[in-house]
Amino acid sequence: MLVDHFPLVGLRLRTPRLELRLPSPEELAALAEVAAEGVHDPGTMPFLVPWTDRPAAEVARSVIQRHWTKLGEWTPQNWCLDLAVFHEGAAVGMQDVRARDLAVTRRVGTGSWLGRRHQGKGIGTEMRTAVLELAFAGLGADEAESSAFAHNEASHGVSRKLGYELNGTDRHAVRGALTVDHRMLLTRAAWERHRTVPVTIEGLDPCRALFGLDLA
């Protein structure tokens, strides 16, 4: 079975309302359609790489290709886990968690997108909480980093709620204009103080080697 060779397909994160896991091909297609319908106000760009500026068919295809690429490039030293987010059985967005040399650095990064019609319901907070539980409780991380442009108040709201603090800024050219990116950092101590959403993790033990962790 596939799970015997690539145990990440058996990994499950569950919160009171959500399930996060690798999608089936049909579910990946559904996610692509959610992205094609829109994930942000077209008047602003929340992403450093403006992948949502392309025609809808190209946006959908990029979701599929990115997902396959990240799995195909996976190594225990450098990985990015793109998890589909399901709410009431429907695919609503994508949440990633990633790291380089996790066993040494003990730091992860996260990123996400959520279909516009699913925003404003607290789903963004819950899905990031799920991967933070995986990182801190499951993988032994000490820090988690995130970033969002100055105008992305929704992302900053999630970060503040979960205990992140400002960790510097970067300046980028996006759509030909200056955009200030705020780097945010969450420590283990702050995560422990701000844990409010229960998360269950299933199928992690067989995956530890893929995350670059010592099985001893």
From TrEMBL:
Keyword Disulfide bond: no
PROSITE patterns, per the entry: GNAT
GO molecular function, one term: protein N-terminal-serine acetyltransferase activity
GO cellular component terms, semicolon-separated: cytoplasm
N-acetyltransferase domain location: 18-187
Swiss-Prot/TrEMBL keywords: Transferase
Gene3D superfamilies: 3.40.630.30
Pfam family, one: Acetyltransf_3
InterPro entries listed in its UniProt record: Acyl_CoA_acyltransferase (IPR016181), GNAT_dom (IPR000182), Ribosomal_N-acetyltransferase (IPR051908)
Record-given protein name: GNAT family N-acetyltransferase
Organism whose genome encodes this protein: Actinomadura syzygii
